[in-house]
Amino acid sequence: MLVSEAALEDVHEDVHKTQPWNNPDAVPYIRFENVTKKFGDFYAVDDVSLDVYRHELFALLGGSGCGKTTLLRMLAGFEEPTSGKIYIDGVDMAGVPAYERPTNMMFQSYALFPHMSVEQNVAFGLVQDGVSRSEIKQQVAEMLGLVQMTKFAKRKPHQLSGGQRQRVALARSLIKRPKVLLLDEPLGALDKKLREQTQFELVNIQEKVGTTFVMVTHDQEEAMTMASRIAVMNEGVINQTGTPFELYEYPNSRYTANFLGQVNLIEGVLVDDDEKYAVIKSDEAGCDIYIDHAVQGHQGMTFWVALRPERLRITKEEPKETKYNCLSGKVEEIGYLGGISTYHVRLASGKRIKVTEPNSTRQIEPRYTWEDTVWVSWEAGAASVLSK
Amino acid sequence: MSSEKPTLKQRFDRWMIKHGRVLVIGIPYLWLFLFFLVPFLIVLKISFSMAEYAQPPYTSLFSWIEEGVTITLNFGNYLFLLSDSLYATAYLNSIRIAAISTVITLLIGYPMAYGIARAQGSMRSVLLMLVILPFWTSFLIRVYAWIGILDREGLINAFLLWTGIISEPLIMRQTEFAVYVGIVYTYLPFMILPLYSTLEKMDISLVEAALDLGCKPWQAFAKVTLPLSMPGILAGSLLVFIPAVGEFVIPELLGGPNTLMIGRTLWNEFFANRDWPIASAVAIAMLIFLVVPIMWFQHIQTKQEEGQQ
Question: Across all residues in chain A, what is the average pLDDT?
Fold first, then answer.
């Protein structure tokens, strides 16, 4: 069936609206241009260029000290870049103090004013701007309704639970309708259950108010659940930027592959390559690895094959085809998590491979036990090949 | 469980766990009772007696007449304090000088405490050390040093005359100005230390949040930093104000003959007039003057702290 030109156009337009980063004509809302921040001799942020589009929920993801918070603080105006430029909605932010920027921040500690009630905290930004009393009253009521804190308006911050404080902090930072809302580890202080629930709430609120969110987190799950796009940072540099899907399925480096989800990395040397396939010989694996696509590189080059544990098959019987993509080893560790089980398989080379398997049928007894000899295999398309 | 009898050590340990707390708290209480409350009661007693040429120079409150003990309380000393305006003037002067000194100390001490609290880690301890350093030399010597600085032929006058800014030496010593200099200089650390400890504990992101929400730096200070450092301001002010009211050495050495402060009056009554009952009444009245507002202050402060926890 032929698709009409017009229909195709529509699809494109839709993609451009929901994925502005794929639209070459889209104008970024926030732009970092070769931004560097030095503290003494230490490069906290090293030559970072990054575009964030309007209405995005963008996450800066990385371990502690990777420069993500510094990047956020430069956006808020608490730090000035050593070099490079930052634009928000086309305006150069150089020399613009924090109190004049179109951004508001939700702090990791929430930074609620302890001497003010919930109401006064939320109203703070508007009072500062000299908004009329009746207007403030109405907007505060609206905001407290949005974060479901109306009942607690008269309380002081110390009378609230962690989750309630988080809501107040969110309301306070949203009330001035900033162009960009900055969130520093917004859920870091909450326990796991509450965090999962709040993740979706935050996304819903973001969709409702339509503000562009930039958030900093070290929690890959949080970033993947919430963000439209993620920038993975390491040592002051952005390693990779993309949607959660892109980053998980097509990591560009071992760092990204490791940081998002779990991965087995098998080192090997390219021995055969073609336009359609490649073969990597790996002493670690003890077998050759067949890749169903071409690999950028020359023969003899070292590569790492990234295999997600859930894409591996584990069997007690030797598979029929053992020439490629088939490892054998002994079960060393078993983790029974109910819904899934994880196995650590030790290969002859000493390399450990992690495999997860859904427990989709009810078993009488565990399928594998310690020291069982098993085979681990995978489809040619399951692996990604990394050169760094 | 074994049915063995506990050893002596075990029994001692158990006893300590049960009663150790009382012991630990009891010792300082006993100390305060012996060396603070008992002398106070003695002074209180003397304030109700009458002066006498005897050893000790006051009458006894208790007299034994056949059937029992008669207590004679003499309120005359307190009435005398009211009748002679000298005392009222001295009290008011003391409170005025102490209050002004406290405000000056606060104005100087706050920025210093703020600076120290926001300094880098290693620098911070050096600066704190510098604040405390003067305590290692005798207070009296430091006050004498100020005489050398403020005197007619002192350092400041010598310098100003040398530069030609003035042609006649300034009279600074034996004025109220010198008393302010002395009090502010002496009590500055007592202002800085409590202020420092509240400012240092304050979360810097609170100020950032205020800036982020549109406050200019001075507004953030007025709306966030200042109200949150109130406990420190109160504590520091009390620590300066209370001893400044009763200060004797500084007005004696630096102030002029007209700088009438209650500490000096007290000294005169005790040593020059040898009127112990009047002197005691002066001391007790001062205590009441000071204790009542201070207790009120502390009451407010505890309330505030409860509100912030």
Answer: 85
